[in-house]
Amino acid sequence: MAENCSAKGCKINVPAGLAAEHLCVMHFTLFIENECAEMRRETALGNTNHERQMEFITKISGRGEALVHVATSGFPMSDELKARVLSTLLTLMNTRENMDRAAMRQSALRRFVG
Ligand SMILES: [Zn+2]
User: Fold this and answer.
1) Is this prediction's pTM over 0.85?
2) Number of H helices, E strands in the chain
């Protein structure tokens, strides 16, 4: 018996691949988008410490894997939902890229100043 999404007011079934997250595909993508926005905010200045950065990198690839896994598992999805999955993957990729860029800018600046 499939479990229902834990998001408020949502009665959609949780796909097997997201059982640990207790979210339907749509709410999982929204959850990831929120996480990415937070990670971007925190890393925008490029002064995030290495440990925290590694934590974010691990999180980003973990979310990406979970999303791709569900999307390719044969779970039925509307075209709209497929588009959402793709745009969330793009958000994950851009968040990772922005983080790397901010860190690079900061280390270049440190070299320049120091
Ligand atoms: Zn839901």
Assistant:
1) yes
2) 3, 0
25 C-alpha to ligand 1 centroid (Å) = 7
- Contact call for residues 95 and 40 (beta carbons, < 8 A): yes
Residue 13 phi, psi dihedral angles, 5° rounding: -65, 145
In the block, tokens 């009665």 appear at 11
Q: How far is the CA of 4 from the centre of ligand 1 (A)?
A: 8
Could you list which residues have their CB under 5 Å from ion ligand 1? Answer: 5, 7, 10, 12, 24, 27
* Ligand 1 centroid to residue 11 C-alpha, Å: 7
pLDDT more than 90, % of the chain? 78
Instruction: Measure the CA dihedral 72/78/79/82, to 10°.
Output: -40
**CB neighbours (10 Å) of residue 27?**
19
CA distance 114 to 111: 5
